[in-house]
Amino acid sequence: MAQAVALRTLESLAPIKKELLAVGGGSRSDFWMQIYADMYGKAVVRTQVGMQAAALGAAAVAFVGIGEWSDFSRIDAAHKVIDRRIPIDENVFFYAKRLQLFEKLNTFLSEIGDDLVAGK
After folding, report:
1. How far is C-alpha 27 from the geometric centre of its chain's CA atoms?
2. Beta bridge partner(s), residue 35
3. For the segment 64-107, what is each residue's pLDDT rounded down to a tens digit?
């Protein structure tokens, strides 16, 4: 749930596409890919880049940094979509309700922590 809170915060600062790119170990699991799609309410795509995403990003930063590339647009060409998980409406609703409960509980616990620090 904390990931959903983080994504919501990020979306308040900058628009996020309707699709999210999943890379790394978790992206190898169809089960987790579906959970992410449902929890975020966005399609989650998996590409062939997979575990090499960090190396690709570092190389792109280096190429832009030395002026070899004018921007990061070439990164998109490196990704070929393997599959896409679409959110399931009833699961999106389930996670949205749990997120509301999580936020209430988080606020409550934060207030208790503040009271403890203040010596109340």
Report:
1. 11
2. none
3. 999 999 999 888 888 889 999 999 999 999 998 988 898 899 88
Evaluate whether 18 touches 54 at the Cβ level (below 8 Å). Answer: no
pTM for the full predicted model = 0.71
Q: What is the residue whose two structure tokens read 């628009």?
A: 15
What single string gives the DSSP state of each residue in the chain? -HHHHHHHHHHHHS---SEEEE-SGGGG-HHHHHHHHHHHTSEEEEETTGGGHHHHHHHHHHHHHTTSSSSSTHHHHH--EEEEEPPPHHHHHHHHHHHHHHHHHHHHHHHHHHHHHHT-
Who's near 77: CB < 8 A, 6+ residues apart? Answer: none
Could you count the other beta carbons within 10 Å of the beta carbon of residue 6?
A: 10
Phi, psi dihedrals of residue 27, rounded to the nearest 5°: -75, -15
From the list 96, 65, 62, 59, the residue with the least C-alpha distance to 78 is: 59
Adjacent-strand bridge partners of 3: none
Round to whole Å and give the CA distance between 45 and 20: 6
